[in-house]
């Protein structure tokens, strides 16, 4: 839950911050230019986080007519801001996970399997240990058990932020990817009504509940993490 809160709140803060820098203080006046999760959580989205495994935060209010300069360029920057923050957090927490894993696991384990294998999302046995499910069975391989919660939180926070970045890049309204495609390709010409956005949001929720969007996201998440771990493995082994 903590990892999801970090990802969602920082994502919305990114939108609010860039909108403010572009001249629109709507989010700031609404109290959304903050990392306080209480300002960003949507009641229904928060409930679904607990019981359905997915959820959402309240969208940051943005008034494009208050932007300074090119409106389409500012809208593109605001749309990419949340995704960019999530990617930065993914990189930062992956590096924290790698550093923690160097000390969490015994040296011969790191030498045998390699750091990129121990951090990779692909290997269920490693994640079973991180989550605590197999900690007792594989206790002989762990050097500093007290580091397990730290590595667990950082690993899950990295995973959540990568999932959020990929998910929001999908070119489906009301996700950020729709605005990115609309601004880059169509120069912002397509403007959907609030009702259309609500209908699209319902469709997105249905697809997410059925697992279709999750499979699309996972198809990107593994290669994206492997791309980041490649230079990490070259540095740390």
Could you characterize the architecture of this molecule?
The protein is mainly alpha-helical. It has one domain. It is built from twelve helices and no strands.
Write the layout of secondary structure elements.
Elements: H1 2-21, H2 26-29, H3 37-40, H4 43-51, H5 71-104, H6 107-113, H7 115-119, H8 124-131, H9 148-168, H10 176-184, H11 194-209, H12 212-236
Index terms:
237 residues, elongated, 12 helices, mainly alpha
Strand content: under 5%
Tally of DSSP helical segments:
12
Shape: elongated
SSE string, helices as H and strands as E: HHHHHHHHHHHH
**Arithmetic mean of pLDDT:** 82
Count of domains: 1
Secondary structure category: mainly alpha
Radius of gyration: 20 Å
Oligomer: single chain
- Helical percentage: 55-70%
Poorly predicted parts:
none
Largest sheet: none
Strand count: 0
The end-to-end distance, rounded to whole angstroms, is 31 Å
Q: Outline of this structure?
A:
The protein is mostly helical and 237 residues long. Helix content is 68%, strand content 0%.
């Amino acid at each position: 839950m903590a990892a999801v809160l970090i990802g969602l709140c920082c994502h919305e803060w990114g939108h609010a911050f860039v909108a403010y820098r572009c001249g629109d203080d709507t989010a700031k006046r609404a109290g959304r230019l903050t990392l306080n999760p209480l300002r960003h959580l949507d009641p229904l989205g928060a409930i679904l986080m607990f019981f359905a495994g997915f959820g959402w935060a309240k969208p940051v209010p943005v008034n494009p007519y208050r932007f300074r300069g090119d409106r389409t360029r500012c809208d593109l920057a605001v749309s990419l801001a949340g995704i960019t923050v999530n990617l930065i957090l993914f990189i930062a927490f992956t590096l924290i996970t790698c550093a923690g894993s160097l000390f969490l696991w015994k040296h011969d384990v790191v030498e045998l399997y390699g750091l990129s294998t121990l951090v990779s999302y692909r290997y269920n046995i490693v994640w079973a240990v991180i989550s605590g499910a197999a900690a007792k069975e594989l206790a002989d391989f762990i050097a500093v058990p007290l580091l397990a919660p730290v590595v667990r939180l950082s690993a899950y926070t990295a995973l959540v932020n990568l999932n959020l970045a990929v998910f929001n890049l999908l070119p489906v309204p009301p996700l950020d990817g729709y605005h990115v495609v609309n601004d880059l390709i169509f120069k912002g010409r397509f403007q959907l009504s609030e009702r259309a956005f609500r209908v699209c949001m319902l469709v997105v929720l249905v697809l997410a509940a059925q697992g279709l969007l999750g499979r699309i996201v996972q198809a990107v998440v593994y290669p994206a993490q492997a791309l980041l771990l490649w230079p990490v493995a070259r540095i740390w082994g």
